[in-house]
Amino acid sequence: MTGKSDRVICEECDVEMIHHADKVVLASGGEEEAMIDPDLGGIVESAHCCPGCGSGHTVRREAPGRS
Fold first, then answer.
1. Segments in the chain forming alpha helices (H)
2. Rounded to the nearest 5 degrees, what angle is found at the Cα of 20, between the Cα atoms of 1 and 14?
3. How far, in Å, are 7, 9, 23 from residue 62 at the CA level?
4. How far is it, in rounded angstroms, from Cα 34 to Cα 65?
5. pLDDT at 4 over 60
6. What pLDDT digit, counting tens, does each position of 25-53 carry?
7. pTM (2 decimals)?
8. Please, are residues 7 and 19 in contact by the beta-carbon 8 Å criterion?
9. Per-residue pLDDT, 18
């Protein structure tokens, strides 16, 4: 589902990370409320793992059509 424009680079070793999963998480208020995808009822969070050093990283994406 992620494309080249959605690449996540490891902060530890500067290697492109592997996308493992997407999940919907509930907003905890404040600025996150603006990120809610109305079709899913939460925020889409992507989990990534580095093939170089093994570190993990998650990224929260804004809802489609929002900037």
1. none
2. 95
3. 16, 19, 13
4. 11
5. no
6. 887 777 777 788 888 888 888 999 999 99
7. 0.65
8. no
9. 93
